[in-house]
Structure prediction request, 266 residues.
Amino acid sequence: MEKVKKILESDRFQYFIIGLIVLNSITIGLETSPTTMAFTGDWLYLLDEVILGIFVVELLVKLLVYRAKFFGESWNIFDLSIVLLALIPSAGNLSILRTLRILRTLRLLKNVPKLRIIIEALLKSIPSIGWIGVLVMIIFYIFAVIGTSLYGEQFPQWFGNLGASMFTLFQIMTLESWASGIARPVMEQLPNAWVFFVPFILLATYTTLNIFIAIVVNTMNELHQYDIDEEERKLKEFVHEENVELQHLLEELKAQVARIEKKVKG
Prediction:
């Protein structure tokens, strides 16, 4: 089992799985082309089934090797879910599930370390990002009330009620035609309206976005530092084990030398 475990965790095997995932993603994309399917449809389906079979075997071997520990890692459960979803029969009313095979591409998130770090950073940032969401909602609510009060009568299509105002503010936050589509038409009648739009953009778009980026980057740095600390810990454990083994060898060598000297003197 140890040999199998080493193979599963080796870089070559990981690169092999990554290659299969990329190849499978390409074949699934090619299946959307009627021209390609007319010439190579059967071969693409066969290749898809072979790759799926390899994924199934990989997971079965991992289950045999790691046993209960397999379910202790969230990424293994993620892999298992993706593969099990691909095994659901896609005939009849469930034919749409065949399209979900493209989700196998998500396995790259687990097999490519850099992508895995980004996803883990995003997941660990969720609590802080949630508070950013609360801050954004407060900003939206305040400006929506102000916008409805100031511009609701003249521009009911954008600020007629609280819901319409919040949707308009969302469009402004995304910077989608905010100037030519909303701000400038309002400013044609109310030149001082820029006092409303500019602070909102600065608060809701640039400030909030920078805070979001800062949180994610900080979390990524923490994960990176954790990886470094973990590598240092493993290195120290290895050095300690080697020192202990070396100490035992030295003691055995001293004992052998002592026995030899005793025989020589005897």
Q: What stands out?
A: The radius of gyration is 31 Å. Residues 194-265 form the longest helix (72 residues). The mean pLDDT is 83.
